[in-house]
Amino acid sequence: MSKIVGFTEYGGPDVLTITDIVVPAPAAAEVQIAVKAIGLNRAESMWRTGVYVEPVRLPARLGYEVSGVVTAVGADVSGLAVGDRVSTMPAFSQNDYGLYGELVNAPAHAVVKVPASLSFNQATALWNMFVTPYGALVESKALSAGQSVLIPAASSAVGLGAIQVTNLAGGVSIALTRTSAKRDQLLAAGAQFVIATEEQDLVAEVLRITGGKGADLVFEPVGGAYFPTLIEAMAPGATMFIYGALSPETTPLPLLSIILKQPVIRGFNLFGITTNPARQKAAADYIFAGIARGALQPIIARTFPFSEIVASHRYLETNQHFGKIIVEV
What we know:
Helix content is 29%, strand content 27%.
């Protein structure tokens, strides 16, 4: 028997329940994992409320990122064996697999062996945090040394990953946060500049930092009413990567500013990387090399025990965390 998290209706964290199920042996191209740590993502919160990028089939499970030890492998699985320390990348639909649980089957293509130097908590904090900014900024070759990157929601796990990836690429990381409460933390985490958007004039600060040019890149997960201000802070012809939609507000499209600035606005998600074996390996190699050099470091905000999965989702939705929220199993 294994305890598994699921939900039968959309709603807040309280719809999550823990039930006991019999976990079958892994099917072909599957790996069974004894889970040690679960990494929380806003995608899972959106999944739980039924507002994700694909329809949810109820009753549903959830969970993309876990780490643990392989306990069994199905047919047609190569490169993975019982006893391996592994973690999972988001590389599947949560309609097919939900990895919040004690013992789970995962698609082998999403399972990556991790170095012994990483704890299970660290290993489950890697992929969304670093693959997302790596794909948008590095793999795409959008970021060159010396270019400036605006990073809204900079204290999120992916925001902190973007600061580190920008710095590793020789860029100028400009972290955006609503108030100055997290300024010192962001600077300690590597941000070269921090702008408190509710206390400072974003456009004026960006122009000051960039010598009047404006930002070369924006790595944007929020949307909402502040979107036109981000456009104003961009250099002419600059690129914005949109990888999230955290704001519940309507996002205005400032047509005149877009006509004037001629920005490139691109949507981005990491599935193109994580579901392609060659691209996935390149991303993992980049991240492991960055960790070995000390240039990349997963940042853990807070840990919860598995029994407090509801409380962990409540905390996720406060948007007060600094880094990755981990549930220990």
